[in-house]
Amino acid sequence: MVLLDNITSVSSSADYLPIGIQLIFAAGFVAFMIAFSAWVGPKRKTSDKLQTFTSGIPSHGDARHPMAIKYFLVAILFVLFDVEVIFFYPYAVNFQDFAADITMKWHTFYAVLMFVGCFLVGFIYIIKKGALKWED
Amino acid sequence: MQTNYFILMHHELIIAITIMLLLVIKVGSDKLSNQLVANVTNGLLLASLVLGFIVQPEGNVFGDMFHTDGFALLQKNILVAGTLIISLQASTWLKDYEHTAEFYILLLSTLLGMCFMISSRHFLMFYLSLELSTIPLAALANFDLHLKRSSEAALKLIISSAFSSGLMLLGISFLYGTTGTLSFGEVASAIQLNTPLQLFAFVLIFAGFGFKISAVPFHLWTADVYEGSPVAVTSYLSVISKGAVLFVFITVLFNVFALYAHSWYYLIVIVSLFTMVIGNLFALRQTNIKRFLAFSSISQVGFILIGLSGGTHTSAASVVYFIVVYIFSNLGAFGVIALVQGLTGKENINDYKGFYLNNKMLSWMLGIALFSLAGIPPVAGFFGKFFLLLSGAEKGAYWLIAIAAINMVISLYYYLNVVKNIFIDKSDTSIEKLPIAIQPRIAMIICVIGVVGSGLCGGLYQYIFDLVK
């Protein structure tokens, strides 16, 4: 009987009301923001304003235009190494505590050395592959 | 304490060392012999496999995030063995390939992720290792660099897996919000019945798993990705990656969501019904042999889900046993397909007409593998499916078993259709006699021994069953 009680209470639709409200709120918020800004916002269009703004450079063509893969490659490698650097922060923050502790001192240093070694090999790999060579 | 890490994580360490070694070799020399790279990898995988059977530690590290025991080690051994077979089979394709080292680095990265995934006892660790095991796979799917459909496969795989990860993360965050913890053990004890948000979280996590194992409402990426990827990657996706996710699924279902057992029972029964029926119906109409195996693997997942629905030790054992059998049978079939595709470029079922005429050994290999996939008695596939259905029947849902049996009959049609093409049909343009190199030959012998042996050797199931407890 207890089992049956649980089944009925789990599948009671009233219990799902908070989830439904959350979904409605999520969708409603998006719709509201778009509609509200379109309704309230002032619309004074001039030909200069309607032009695509690309940091002061006159625009030409549209965005669906084949681009050299090297832009993408440099960008993605930048992001990658940028993220790698973040992993040093926990070590840097705790550095003084580690230096005071005689057992942890070398332990953590080897861990960081291993991490640096790993991504250094990756770095040498991309250089050898010519991923950062700009001129063909 | 220091040595403890090394012994508990020996699978992961050997794989990680292999990855670093390959990277250093690749960076160090310009002219790299593909054979050397393959041999180094195969040797270290073999070492890891042997070590996995000899050294069987048990314990937790990293603040109980990482747990290992006999059952986890068995699962890792299964995956390493499967990867080794795939690596041997791929040697025909990799012989003249320019990015062999990269192929192995990415392949082993996914294997590393899967090993961590099996051992994880924390949702954060689990999610990280799941990503480690899927993102390199998308890169691998693109490894037929000159083919457009290979890029298409990679893009479809990365988008669908990103979507499924998103769903799963939402589920995990709901779980964290309601229980305040992410560790498997603590979540299991903090979960309460009558909390709709937790049930919703479970459904989201289930959907994430469903994508990875391509259960039916989430199966749409499977056929395109399987068709576009190189054969080695397709076989890896269909066997190893699915197996790993299913292993973790067992833990998540039986340990973390044990309290919701009567809710997920119906969910799994419905999904498995759809998976079997739709997988079968689509498989009937396929002409490309890789697409055909994609849909057949979908319907096999339906059978696995029936086994899971039992919810006891027996069903965990039967699922693991079936995956062992499935690895041998599916890799047996993919081994032959890889060879044919690598040497002739043919991958349609019609191309296999009259295959028996010139290639006796390959035909028998493919035939045995297909018989095992169909579940015909002397080979292991029958016993695998038998145990799955037996554990599914424990809850008394005999109508489910009846529908599964009907589906097995339907699946016989398309498996035997391929066998008919190979053995009976005649063709003027049948495939010439193909030379088989030493590595694929070894892989093939392992598969035949596996397919026949794992069924006849009854101790294997007992061994797995004892480990589950």
Walk me through what this model shows.
The complex is a heterodimer of chains A (136) and B (469). Chain A is mainly α and 136 residues long. Chain A has a domain at 69-129. Helix content of chain A is 70%, strand content 0%. Chain A has seven helices and no strands. Chain A is flat. The relative contact order of chain A is 0.05. Chain B contains 21 helices and two strands. A two-stranded antiparallel sheet of chain B has the order 1-2. The model of chain B has no long low-confidence stretch (mean pLDDT 89). Classes of the chains: A mainly alpha (136), B mainly alpha (469).
Short description:
The complex is a heterodimer of chains A (136) and B (469). Chain A has 136 residues and is mainly α.
Radius of gyration of chain B: 21 Å
What is the number of E strands of chain B?
2
Tell me the number of helical segments of chain B per DSSP (H or I, 4 or more residues long): 21
Tally of domains of chain B: 1
Largest sheet of chain A: none
Rounded average pLDDT of chain A: 81
- Based on Cα principal axes, name the global outline of chain A: flat
- Portion in strands of chain A: under 5%
The helix fraction of chain A, in percent, is 55-70%
Q: Report the end-to-end length of chain A measured between terminal Cα atoms.
A: 76 Å
From N to C, what is the helix and strand string of chain A?
HHHHHHH
Question: Whole-Å distance between the termini of chain B?
Answer: 27 Å
- Poorly predicted ranges of chain A (pLDDT <50, ≥5 residues)? 1-9
| Global shape of chain B | globular
Structural class of chain B: mainly alpha
Q: Assembly type of the shown chains?
A: heterodimer
Number of helices of chain A: 7
Keywords:
heterodimer, A: 136 residues, mainly alpha, B: mainly alpha, two-stranded antiparallel ribbon, 21 helices, 78% helix
